[in-house]
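Hi R.,

Here's the chain you asked about this morning:
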Amino acid sequence: MKATCYILYSHILDKFYIGATQDDVNLRILKHNNKNYGSHRYTAITNDWELFLSLDVKTYDHAIRIERKIKAMKSKTYIKNLKKYQDMRDKLIINTSS
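And the predicted structure, written out as tokens:
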């Protein structure tokens, strides 16, 4: 089964949102923008979320570990560099593999 750690970006908020899913990422974005997860959720603040980066891995557990690692960095620069540098993405996937 495939899973994805994804990073969304909102131009209105100038913020990133990091999540993980076993579903299709485009469907997931649509659900975030349509407030399908409830109006009390962080992504309900706006409806202009777009895919910034996605990392496909084999298991949902691995996607969650990647999500937590990215969130722990608490850095827009780190997120922007993840998109920019393939070697950073590769290292992140390897370092969170188990």
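The radius of gyration is 13 Å.

Let me know if you need anything else.
M.
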